[in-house]
Write a structure and sequence with these properties.
Mean pLDDT: 93
Oligomer: single chain
Distance between the termini: 49 Å
Number of strands: 10
Largest sheet: 6 strands, antiparallel
Radius of gyration: 22 Å
Helix content: 40-55%
Order of helices and strands: HEEEHEEEHHHHEEEEHHHHHH
Low-confidence stretches: none
Strand content: 5-15%
Length: about 350
């Protein structure tokens, strides 16, 4: 997509936000290929100095209904004391426009820095982000008919074949069948057990409490004060309704840190598993200061873990990187680790 065409769209859209003469301070392209275009223009009104963040998008999930839902969720976060840039209504008194076949919307421009911009390593920021998760879970906004990327059983987009977790499990098996003949039968057994557990567990899972979350906590979306403390969140375009247990656990279990070559050697180290457990339990305890897991969630957690954790996207990517780079070298450790996670019965202790 030529940037000149996007510039023309930005110019046409700007008039709907009462900005006739402006300077472009920054253009950020966060697109993911031609089927998922996302541009952010920071525009400054020449006459008043007022700034807006103009979002120009073309993808399967940005619709006028969702933009309106994101705007309402941002207000809910603000009402809870978690700052989120306010969505701006345009001259048609709506939150979005169709301009040159793009969905365009705008937010107020936050003057502070993101965690990425500030290169912050302050642990208090992480703690406050987790507290915000608990606060949102304990005070849910009205549910919306779309999901976050974490979704289980449901699809993020109707064009997807499966939810992300099932996709990872299926693709892992297909890779083993094609490239790891010595592990083909073992991979099929893993998938068969995974599918059986999913089928049995679905009714229980769908009975668990749900809430609407921002859905994309990363350093580019975490806003800081001038003192580099947690301020709030931006970028609600992956927000949606999510099972609370799933969302909170997914956000608290990213514990395999370090270089890829270091991490893979620790896969066979059972003591490393306990380090992960301790870190996840610590983060879930922070969330638990605000959100109290009920008995139904606690009784579901072990089976939920057995199904989802082995094929979390981050773990799947980890396996595939090393299988493609090293062939059979780490296959024994990877398969054994997956099977161990699918059979653990001690993980109930992770929840506060």
């Amino acid at each position: 997509m030529e940037i000149d065409k996007i510039n023309i769209t930005a110019d046409r859209a700007s008039t709907h936000y009462n900005i006739e003469s402006y300077n472009i301070l920054k253009v950020h392209n966060s697109s993911h290929g031609d089927d998922d275009l996302r541009y952010t223009y920071i525009l400054q009104n020449v006459a008043t100095g007022y700034k807006i963040a103009l979002k120009i998008t073309k993808n399967c999930f940005t619709t006028p209904e969702r933009v309106a839902g994101w705007a309402q969720l941002a207000e809910h976060y603000n009402n809870l004391g978690i700052y989120a840039p306010h969505f701006l209504k345009n001259t048609t008194n709506t939150y979005s426009l169709n301009v040159d076949e793009f969905i365009v919307y705008a937010e107020e421009c936050y003057e502070g820095k993101t965690e990425e911009d500030a290169e912050s390593k302050d642990e208090s920021v992480r703690t406050d982000v987790l507290k915000s998760l608990g606060l949102v879970a304990a005070n849910p906004a009205p549910l919306v008919p779309w999901h976050t990327m974490w979704c289980l059983y449901d699809k993020f987009d109707e064009n997807d074949l499966y939810d992300e977790n099932l996709m990872c499990a299926t693709d892992f098996t297909k890779y083993a069948e094609k490239n790891l003949p010595a592990y083909e039968e073992r991979a099929r057994k893993i998938l068969s057990k995974y599918q059986a557990m999913r089928t049995t567990f679905e009714a229980k899972y769908r009975s668990l409490p749900r809430a609407v979350f921002q859905g994309d906590l990363n350093s580019t979306n975490i806003l800081l004060t001038n003192e580099r403390k947690f301020k709030g969140l931006c970028d609600f375009n992956l927000s949606g309704t999510e099972t609370i247990l799933n969302n909170l656990f997914c956000e608290c279990c990213e514990c395999w840190n370090g270089e890829e070559e270091e991490k893979i050697t620790r896969l066979s180290d059972v003591s490393a598993q306990y380090e992960f457990d301790n870190k996840a339990a610590k983060e879930l305890a922070v969330v638990g200061e605000y959100y109290k897991f009920n008995d139904n969630e606690k009784s579901a957690f072990t089976t939920y873990y057995n199904i989802t954790y082995p094929f979390r996207w981050i773990n799947y990517g980890f396996y595939m990187y090393h299988l493609r780079e090293s062939g059979m070298k780490y296959a024994p450790d990877i398969f054994t680790w997956i099977e161990r996670q699918m059979n653990r019965t001690d993980v109930y202790q992770l929840l506060p």
